[in-house]
Sequence to fold (152 residues):
Amino acid sequence: MSADRQSIIVRAPYAISLSATLSDAEQQQAKHLLNLLLAENTNTNSDIDTRHLTLNIKRFIDGHGLACPMPLLKTKVALRDVAIGESLYVVATDANSQADITAFCRQNQQTNTANRLLLAVNSVTKQQPAASSSSQRFDTIYHFIITKTDSN
Fold:
């Protein structure tokens, strides 16, 4: 995969970069979901100054239709492949995911002394169901962008 496939979506209050390591399908799906997220709201974690934040999304987890605790488990596994300064984009449709992933990141901040997790985006969007829905559709999507940071 070539580096020229890297996409950058710039919207206030941050820029989001999709890594060239994501497959074409992952890039398309992530772009669609990010546009939905950024169009509907730009709520971010209030503890973070996002004015000059660039999120480099290295991995993408599609948790549509996965019941608790699968989105959290997939998040934990995917974070193994994320380096310091890189981000993981997770979307889920299970309402429990919001509490689970938020608590996981908060606990990591308190207990991990090496690589900490910054929950840069924790937002909810509503998606209009398709009129001709042959596959299962979900109205509420939970978006998380988790960045691995150096504790120093």
Remarks:
- The CA atoms of residues 24 and 38 lie 21 Å apart.
